[in-house]
Structure to design on (48 residues):
């Protein structure tokens, strides 16, 4: 019984971790895109 509960808990935590990792990946990509936009704006501004 306790083993079954531990397995369920472990699977649930693994799923939660996968979801959090996916969210981190999305936010990381968004931040990198924003960084690239800001960098491009700065390069354009300095080129004037």
């Amino acid at each position: 019984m306790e083993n079954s509960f531990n397995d369920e808990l472990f699977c649930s935590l693994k799923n939660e971790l996968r979801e959090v990792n996916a969210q981190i990946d999305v936010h990381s990509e968004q931040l990198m895109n924003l960084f690239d936009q800001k960098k491009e704006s700065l390069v354009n501004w300095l080129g004037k």
About this structure: The CA atoms of residues 38 and 44 lie 10 Å apart. The longest helix spans residues 2-47. The chain has one helix and no strands. The mean pLDDT is 94.
